[in-house]
Amino acid sequence: MTTAGVRATARIEARADGRGGTSLPVLDGEGPIAPRRTRAHGDEARVMLVGAMSGPLGNDRFAVEATVAEGARLHVGSAAATIALPGQAKGEARYDVRLRVAAGGELHWLPEQLISANGSDLHVTSGIGLEPGARLVFREEQVLGRVGEQPGRLTSRLTLRLGGRTLLDQELSCGPGAPGGWDGPAVLGGHRALGQLLIVRPEFEKDMPRARLLGECAAVNPLAGPAVLVSALAPDALRLRRVLDEALRSFG
Description:
- The chain is mainly beta.
- 6% of the residues lie in helices and 52% in strands.
- Strands 3, 4, 6, 7, 9, 10, 12, 15, 16, 17 and 18 form an eleven-stranded mixed sheet that branches.
- The longest helix has 14 residues, at 237-250.
């Protein structure tokens, strides 16, 4: 920790253990990010990210890195929502997620929501790199403001690359100081919870799910590769989770 903010990185590495399961040779956290091994499910290793202190606050720099090797299966969740808060140190906080999955590896990245509290300023980047033959389920949920309060400034960028080829690269900025129109009918339409679900499966190469609506404020969009993006809006976090869970179940 410094007067300029907290710097912390958590690292997770999953490898096939040679006995039909998945080992975790690297499971390391710093300061506010504590990855904890939980009970395995079949051949899948499971890790829970536990917040050991408040944050990210102003000027903090957090990062989580996860690598899944060939033949390994990893499920990562979090014990509670992450809340971006204003801090004594002025300036933008950053939270970087860097995920890598080898051919034949599988990653389920399913953390709890990120909440942008009033007065906070957070930039989130999620960079995902997959090798051909990798599998991925990636969920991202963001809530603008706690109950009864206005949101902080939140900028989020999501990038997906498969075999070095970019399938998705998008950015959205919300809250005070964001470009005009973010809360208008062309973007959030007054909703305060937004989420995305990325699903990558090799079998989509031959049988790509079709584009379709999921109710009034959610849609399935095929990408230029064996991947689909589900985008959803909702009035609150509970209803957003229901929409994304239903979408995930629809893919079997």
